[in-house]
From TrEMBL:
Main localization, broad class: cytoplasm
Record key words, sorted: Cytoplasm, Guanine-nucleotide releasing factor, Phosphoprotein, Repeat, WD repeat
Name this polypeptide is given: DENN domain-containing protein 3
A Pfam family recorded for this sequence: DENN
Highest taxon, organism lineage: Eukaryota
InterPro entries: cDENN_dom, dDENN_dom, DENN_C, DENN_Domain_GEFs, TPR_DENND3, Tripartite_DENN, WD40/YVTN_repeat-like_dom_sf, WD40_repeat_dom_sf
Key word Cytoplasm present: yes
GO biological process, one term: regulation of Rab protein signal transduction
Biased composition (Polar residues): 61-70
GO cellular component: cytoplasmic vesicle
Length: 1266
């Protein structure tokens, strides 16, 4: 007998586990013959049990009273006593029914002819003795690569003199009581699911086999039907921290969830390959998979074939195998291994010799003895390249530290006689081990591909594979050479270029070194740091003082860290997040429609009780309960209830929102229910958003280009694109100067040969710099983060003979002789003058470079001969760049100067003409700025300005800074210490947010996006939440621990303009948000529910302020004052302001000892007005701001008001900050810090003020507060 099981396709998107059960054939046999002489028999499928497992009358009555959401076409499989044929399959829609046939739902891609062979992969044999029950696993893949999974249980039943079966009902020809069975026939039950619930379905089938022993053959059908019906009614849990539990006597079955929406379901023992293979062999197998070889696994245990193969698939996550995947082949399918393309297959160890001698170019992996070999038809065994050495070493150390044996875990535990407790102990141990194995293999993937991002150009979607390969260690190049050609790697590149925040990106981000973060900010050419050159590892980072609040650093001199290191990849795995379970109610039989209705009602009530008793701060669990309750409502036909539950996911966990399902519900809503939905604002908005998303769906650009040298002449625009694709430089202005340099004295176009010469010289110089190996005696004089960017030829100097070396900080002489030594020439900040002159030598005049420094009387002279002119340009540019960096407190200037001098060097090397030096001088940007427009920084500005940072680093253009937010560091038990640093949040255009670590001013998270519209406000509502308002009318809620947006508030219908938080006793109690249409909403911070809402009598509401339980709302023409408790209008400030100006631009409330002052600015005005709020009838104080066109923003800091503005200087827009004394009402400081309008201000602990500029500059200045 063969019993098969599959899913009901038409509602598979619901996430339920529907099943299709098929009874098999009792085979007639001759018991007089010896079983050994029997030939293998062919199993056949005779009958199918399909959901909904209730009578036709019940189905009819249910459908007439319900809705048409679950209606759909079924594929039909007609069963006959003969072998079933697929061509007999017909649909239920209008096709004739042949007599004696029955309609059966068949999954799309399940071959019912081939499936029996997989259920008996070794063949079906009648035996003289019963054998032990056996379970194995199947994987099916359709032509689109979608997989379904099967679990097969084999068991044996006795037969007597022989029998004939009709639809599985045995009709015994002779049954004699007490007669010993003549032989035993195997039967199989196969359960097929959309999800790989291997352990759960194995437990279910194990329980079923135990139960079947007590049934007579005539009762087996009914019991199997009940089993299938029960599984069909069990939903699949949504991704997240909730597993489902149900009772399948004698076991409790757990249906595990995915960790997150992008993670796979893991319901098997991930350590199995580590028990079968040594770590070195595991790495070899992973190499074969990553290089997409043809692989065949062998084992004498059918179950191990699929489980081990699946483990290796999970080891690759988030990379995905995209070729044929058939981990179990029956003995009739061995010719599959002759396939010409890449594949991963598995077959019984008995076929090892046959496969190895008849197929070519196979990797043969024997699970039983842990061997890896090649098929014998290969004349020369292809070598399996080694995994990159450093990544492999880390993996092996981690693998050796794992505790793989459960018995060792039990040694210290008391014995238990409770089966449930034993089961839970084992599961807890396995879950912990699975987490460790996942982290270990993910770390391997990250270590292998971490530096791919350094060779990507996101704007033009280009990967420079050639340069990436050149930068790999010699021993690692064979591995990367093969991997880079695979489909798997190509898909990986698409995900990186799309900036997908998957498991790889999250781990790569969390394990970045400080050097990696600085490289994000300063895109300098790659060179070896002194630390790397010395191959020294920094043992431990500076230990952070673990206070509950971690403060900002003293910004005396921000510099690169002395010891950038990557976080240890051997660190202990953090404890896995706690997972809850939900007990599914019992299902009662017989399964009539009223029983199903009762089950769904009870399920709904249990979920409602869980929702009502769960604290609101546990939003992750609430989201899962809402999701499940929505599914149950859907199955009950209560579509509006389902939509309401799914709508709650916006405020609990947006990631699991079932967009496609909700869209299908909306499309099938009857007119009466659609009318009811439109009367409910929250459902109307949900429907609108979902349907708009469908209309706005655009195809994601996922092409990947490999960099190629140009073959035609290039105009400026094409040249800009090519240079950006090459990764040499991204800044448009710099590329324009490079274009001018390469086209000196010719038409304004660049031929392919010039571009090739320039590109090759740049790359050769980069490669040569990687080979520089300074002796330890020299390295000890340099900072660990310094790099040697250029070396001169050997020259004669007044300090001795040697090579002049240039780093980002200094010049030094690498002396020659017996032992190379270090002689300091000058730090760039200490240079006083640089001259290019000549000295007489016999009858010759030798070009000489002279460098004068502040602290040395002796002038450095070097006879640089032909290199003198170039070094003169280089030193002057670095000197000017360093001066600019020091004056403006902006370290990016020195990095830009460094890029300029390296471009000069490449231009001279590529052109090799008399005009080369003149061409290179076109790139002397900072030296020309210093000579043409001397930039004198006022003393007040220089003393107050501490540092500048650039959130647009790496972008093609600078971007305007729309909003700034500083959040203090807090050390939470659940957080890593490095995640507890203070942060600076910066909102750029089109919804982009960049987050800086405010303790080092390095980029912590480069760019994540909140919609596509301009962001208008940001506020830290509580320690774990940052709310961000957008012009798309949505408030995005960022989890500061995971740095992701899982929730959003959609109750506003216009641009969000401001958000403020009310605190009581220092604890946030309510949040207030405003929108441009005049709506103000008070939010419960814990539940995210609307407490109160108010509509102002006018629109254009631009900002709100909170003071003493009063909400001050600023519109263009007036200010409204309301009580926060009842939103009752208390005051309208309008008549006293009519004579001042047209409309408000911004305002602040400034509490003083005896009264509250209102500070306000107006459009187009350079005056600041101050009112005493107790006496608006009096004339306001007016403060005129010199050289100001318009006031753009203001904040209160201590007893000062800091005001940002826009002005003009020499015809250009400039940003200026005024610091005004609140007591004296006078301007204390005028700060010249930006080359564009000051768009945003924020305070950091009242110690620093941070200002952000418009798109012409796009930088953030950090000012010290007196």
């Amino acid at each position: 007998m063969l019993i098969l099981n599959a899913w009901k396709e038409k509602i598979s998107y619901l996430g339920f586990l529907p099943f299709l059960i098929q009874r098999g054939l009792l085979v007639r046999c001759d018991t007089q013959r010896k079983p050994r002489s029997l030939l293998p028999l062919d199993p056949e499928v005779l009958s199918v049990f399909v959901p909904p497992f209730i009578s036709r009358d019940d189905i009819h009555s249910t459908n007439t009273s319900g809705n048409n959401f679950n209606r759909g076409k079924r594929r039909s499989f007609r069963k006959k006593k003969e072998r079933p044929k697929l061509e007999n399959a017909k649909t239920l829609n209008g096709d004739q029914k042949a007599p004696g046939t029955e309609d059966i739902t068949v999954p799309k891609d399940i071959d019912l002819i081939g499936l029996p062979q997989l259920c008996f992969p070794g063949g079906l044999f009648i035996t003289a003795e019963p054998r032990e029950d056996h379970i194995h696993f199947l994987v099916f893949t359709d032509v689109c690569g979608n997989r379904t999974y099967g679990v097969v249980a084999q068991y044996y039943q006795p037969i007597q003199d022989g029998c004939i079966a009709s639809n599985g009902q045995a009709q015994w020809e002779s049954v004699r009581a007490g007669k010993k069975p003549g032989c035993f026939v195997p039967l199989a039950i196969c359960v097929i699911s959309r999800y790989p619930y291997f352990n759960a379905l194995k437990d279910c089938l194990s329980c079923l086999l135990v139960q079947l022993r007590s049934f007579k053959d005539l009762d087996v059908d009914d019991h199997i039907k009940e089993f299938a019906a029960k599984l069909f009614l069990i939903p699949s849990p949504p991704p997240g921290p909730l597993h489902l539990v149900f009772n399948m006597k004698p076991l409790q079955i757990i249906i595990p969830s995915q960790e997150d929406p992008d993670s796979p379901v893991i319901d098997l023992d991930l350590h199995l390959p580590l028990l079968c293979f040594k770590p070195e062999q595991v790495l070899q197998i992973m190499t074969c998979i990553l290089t997409e070889r043809k692989m065949v696994f062998f084992s004498s245990d059918w179950a191990l074939l699929t489980l081990v193969a699946e483990c290796f698939m999970l080891y690759l996550h988030p990379l995905q195998w995209q070729h044929t995947f058939v981990p179990l082949l029956s003995r009739h399918m061995l010719d599959f291994v002759m396939a010409p393309t890449s594949f991963l297959m598995g077959c019984h160890a008995d076929h090892f010799e046959e496969v190895s001698t008849e197929a070519e170019d196979l990797i043969l992996i024997n699970i039983d003895d842990g061997n890896i070999s090649h098929s014998r038809m290969v004349e020369e065994e292809p070598e399996i390249p080694d995994v990159p050495a450093q990544a492999a070493e880390t993996f092996k150390k981690r693998a050796e530290s794992l505790q793989l044996h459960y018995d060792l875990e039990l040694c210290h535990l008391r014995a238990t006689t409770d089966l449930g407790e034993l089961q839970m102990r084992r599961r807890a141990w396995q879950q912990k081990l699975n987490t460790e194995v996942q982290q270990m293999t993910l770390q391997l993937i990250v270590n292998i591909f971490r530096e791919v991002k350094d060779h990507l150009n996101y704007e033009h979607r280009v990967f420079n594979s050639e340069e990436f390969l050149k930068t790999r260690a010699i021993g690692d190049q064979p591995f990367y050479g093969k991997v880079l050609e695979t489909y798997m790697f190509h898909s990986f590149l698409k995900a990186r270029l799309n900036r997908k925040m998957d498991a790889f990106a999250r781990l790569e981000l969390s394990t970045q070194s400080e050097e990696d973060r600085f490289n994000l900010m300063f895109r300098t050419p790659r060179r070896l740091t002194m630390e790397k050159m010395a191959s020294k590892r920094f043992n431990s980072q500076n230990i952070i003082n673990r206070r509950m609040v971690i403060s900002m650093p003293n910004l005396q001199d921000i510099k690169l860290p002395e010891s950038p290191t990557r976080r240890s990849s051997l660190r202990r795995i953090e404890p896995s997040k706690s997972v809850s379970t939900f007990k599914i109610p019992e299902i009662h039989f017989p399964l009539m429609s009223h029983c199903v209705h009762s089950y769904y009602t009870e399920f709904f009530n249990h979920l409602s009780k869980a929702i009502n008793t769960l604290p609101p701060d546990n939003s992750a669990l609430l989201a899962r309960y809402f999701y499940l309750r929505g599914l149950i409502s859907l199955m009950q036909g209560k579509l509006l209830n389902a939509l309401s539950d799914f709508q709650n996911l916006d405020k609990t966990d947006l990631r699991i929102f079932p967009t496609e399902l909700v869209r299908k519900i909306v499309e099938t809503l009857p007119p009466s229910e659609r009318f009811q939905a439109d009367r409910k604002p929250e459902l109307k908005r949900l429907i609108s958003l979902v349907m708009e998303q469908q209309r706005e769906v655009t195809k994601i650009d996922d092409h990947v280009k490999h960099f190629e040298l140009p073959k035609t002449h290039m105009q400026l625009d094409d040249f800009v694109k090519r240079i950006q694709e090459s990764g040499i430089v991204r800044d448009i202005d710099t590329i324009h100067r490079l274009f001018d340099a390469l086209t000196v004295g010719q038409q304004k176009q660049i031929d392919p040969e010039t571009f090739r010469d320039f590109y090759n010289y740049w790359k050769e110089t980069e490669a040569e710099a990687q080979e520089v190996n300074l002796p330890p005696a020299v390295i000890e004089h340099l900072d660990k983060n310094e790099c040697v960017y250029k070396l001169s030829c050997s020259v004669k100097t007044n300090y001795g003979v040697g090579k002049i070396a240039l780093t980002q900080k200094r010049l030094f002489l690498l002396t020659e002789g017996g032992r190379p030594g270090y002689v300091h020439i000058a730090a760039f900040r200490d240079i006083e003058d640089v001259k290019n002159t000549t000295v007489a030598f016999l009858l010759l005049r030798i070009p000489t470079l002279r460098i004068e420094t502040i602290y040395k009387k002796q002038v450095f002279e070097a006879n640089l001969k032909t290199e003198c002119d170039l070094w003169y340009l280089i030193v002057k540019e670095m000197w000017a760049g360093k001066k600019m960096a020091d004056d403006h407190k902006d370290p990016q200037y020195i990095q830009q100067a460094l890029t300029n001098v390296l471009l000069m060097d490449a231009v001279v090397g590529a052109l090799q003409s008399s005009k080369a030096i003149y061409a290179a001088s076109k790139l002397s940007y900072f030296d020309r700025m210093k000579n043409e427009v001397p930039m004198m920084i006022p003393k007040t500005t220089s003393e107050t300005l501490k540092h500048k940072i650039n959130p647009s680093a790496g972008e093609t253009f600078p971007q305007a800074i729309d909003v700034l937010l500083y959040t203090p560091g807090h050390l939470d038990i659940s957080e890593r210490p490095d995640n507890a640093h203070p942060k600076l949040w910066c909102a750029l255009n089109e919804g982009k947010v960049v987050v800086f670590d405010a303790s080092t001013w390095t980029i912590q998270q480069h760019c994540f996006r909140m919609g596509r519209c301009k962001l208008t406000c940001m506020v830290m509502v509580e320690q774990s939440q940052v709310w961000i308002g957008s012009q798309d009318s949505i408030i995005y809620i960022i989890n500061t621990h995971s740095m992701s947006c899982n929730k959003q508030l959609n109750d506003h219908h216009s641009d969000i303009t401001d958000i403020v938080v009310e605190k009581k006793n220092g604890i946030p109690s309510e949040a207030y948000s405003s929108s441009l249409d005049g709506t103000v909403i008070a939010w419960n911070i814990s539940t995210l529910k609307v407490n109160r809402a108010f509509q102002l009598p006018c629109q254009n509401l631009t900002s709100i302020k909170l003071h003493n339980e009063q909400l001050w709302c600023c519109t263009g023409s007036c200010i409204f004052v309301m009580s926060t408790y009842e939103f009752r209008l208390q005051m309208k400030i309008e008549q006293h302001l009519k004579d001042v100006c047209s409309y408000f631009l911004c305002f602040q409330l400034f509490p003083e000892v005896l009264h509250l002052n209102l500070w306000a600015s107006y459009s187009g005005s350079s005056d600041l007005y101050i009112w005493n709020t107790k006496d608006f009838a009096s004339t306001p104080q007016k403060i005129h701001l010199q050289d100001c066109s318009e006031i753009t923003c203001m904040i209160q800091v201590k007893n000062q008001m800091w005001v940002g503005s826009s002005g003009t200087s020499q015809g250009k827009i400039k940003g200026k900050i005024y610091v005004i004394s609140a007591e004296k009402k006078t301007v204390e400081k005028e700060l010249f810090g930006h080359a564009d309008t000051v768009k945003a201000l924020c305070s950091a602990e009242d110690r620093y003020v941070l200002s952000g500029a418009g798109k012409e500059e796009g930088k953030i200045a950090i000012w010290k507060v007196e």
